Amino acid sequence: MVRRDYVVAHRRFSEIMGHSHVAPTLWRTAEKLRRDAGQAEEGPGQRWLIPGAICLYHAAIECYVNETLGYSISVSSSEAVRTKLRKLQDLTLGAKIDRFLATYRIKTKFSRRMRSRVLLLSSLRNRLYHHSPEHRAFNLFPREVLKALRAADVPLTGASWVGECHSPKLARWASATVPGLIDEFCRAVGMRGSHFDLPGWGRNPPYFDQ
Q1: pLDDT tens digits, the chain, 210 residues: what are they?
Q2: How far apart are CA 198 and CA 210, in angstroms?
Q3: Taking the mean position of all CA atoms in its chain, how far away is CA 85?
Q4: Where are the domains of the chain?
Q5: Which of 96, 78, 57, 58 is nearest to 4 (CA)?
Q6: What residue spans of the chain are helical by DSSP H?
Q7: Does residue 66 contact residue 95 with C-beta atoms inside 8 Å?
């Protein structure tokens, strides 16, 4: 029922005002920060912008999930379903992603690799967002951060874990997670095309580089 509502909602709203309204702006803002930070692998540039961009990539994914749930709420005729979806919206991304997929009956169709990647980005963002300065050896990294750095193929330089999170490679990994999640979701629910085909995202956003 929820999945059918979602498809109906997408067909209805995509022709009028676009599938996502806020999520694309968060993603584009993150892309601008990443671009401004510089893509050179050498030299500091403005890499201090990268942690902020990573947090915005996380925000774009969570906003996309919440907007998707919001469209289903708007077309559902069941108060019980609407209440369930509103409660789901209030959860954190890490807590809601599995329930989100189950709600649309695509948990078994959704890529496990992409699910793990989204959860890893969520954990990385949480570490950055809730960072507490502390005295510790430079070679000691939070487990989630080390996993993310390895997933992004970031060579460790001997800096603190916060310093390593200023890597352009990590930013590109986080950036690619956003369209990856959306494309995989669209595929799982039976929608053709990519996230660039969805109104509001645009095939060539001004700060996106291949």
Answers
A1: 455 555 444 444 444 333 577 898 899 899 999 988 875 555 566 888 999 999 999 999 999 999 888 888 888 888 998 999 999 999 999 999 999 999 989 999 999 999 999 999 999 999 888 765 565 555 678 889 999 999 999 998 877 888 889 999 999 999 999 999 988 988 888 877 666 666 666 544 433 333
A2: 18
A3: 19
A4: 2-197
A5: 78
A6: 2-14, 23-37, 50-75, 79-89, 93-103, 112-129, 143-151, 161-164, 168-189
A7: no
